[in-house]
Amino acid sequence: QVQLKQSGPGLVQPSQSLSITCTVSGFSLTSYGVHWVRQSPGKGLEWLGVIWSGGSTDYNAAFISRLSISKDNSKSQVFFKMNSLQANDTAIYYCARKGGSSYLYAMDYWGQGTSVTVSS
Amino acid sequence: ENVLTQSPAIMSASPGEKVTMTCRASSSVSSSYLHWYQQKSGASPKLWIYSTSNLASGVPARFSGSGSGTSYSLTISSVEAEDAATYYCQQYSGYPYTFGGGTKLEIK
After folding, report:
1. A23 contact partners, CB below 8 Å, separation of at least 6
2. pLDDT tens digits along B8-24
3. Helix (H) or strand (E) holding B66
4. CB-based contact (8 Å) between A61 and chain B?
5. Cβ atoms of A32 and A98 closer than 8 Å
6. Averaged pLDDT score across all residues of chain B
7. Which residue in the set A47, A103, A107 is minimally distant from B96, CB to CB?
8. Looking at CB atoms within 10 Å, which of A91, B10, B66, B70 has the fewest?
9. Chain A contacts of B95, Cβ < 8 Å?
10. Are residues A110 and A15 in contact, defined by beta-carbon separation less than 8 angstroms?
11. What is the per-residue pLDDT across B34-64, written as a single tens digit (0 to 9) for each?
């Protein structure tokens, strides 16, 4: 079955970077894109960016200067990195699969989330 | 950015009641690109209704969706206790993808 499992730190120091790995199973990264979304009490659900099956990326303009998404198809892993974190980046970060052809621009499976606190 | 506004923010219903929640967009959205998610406390969002009116796999038939342009809605014909959750709409009409602020459904 389709699964997305996230791994990453729960605590990040201010001005440091956040790295999360999303390891997928049940589908191939060469066929599906993977989105990154975060959820915070103050801003709700925010779309951060996506890496498409072909490897190209699109980012939310608000984060483009400090966000990077990459992947290793052979390892079924997607890598998320955000730089220069501040307290307002405290949130739960999710990876989510781009839906199949029937689910136009929807996200049909989600990872379990990584709860990240930015604090010294 | 296409801003989605959901109302009400919180609603309460008794089992068996019919409920409707709305999602309004600041700019028109293709009905093919308007989706709904259900999120229960402590869990990840789940795709619930896609392309305005199509139920995702496993979603009970008491749920339905409708709308067009800038106004969309999710209706539960007869609420059950298991429907307690927050429901989010999401759209794509160009980057960035955006989500509404959510409607929290409480069951009396």
Report:
1. A4, A5, A6, A7, A75, A76, A77
2. 999 999 999 999 999 99
3. strand B63-68
4. yes
5. yes
6. 96
7. A47
8. B10
9. 58, 60-61
10. no
11. 999 999 999 999 999 999 999 999 999 999 9
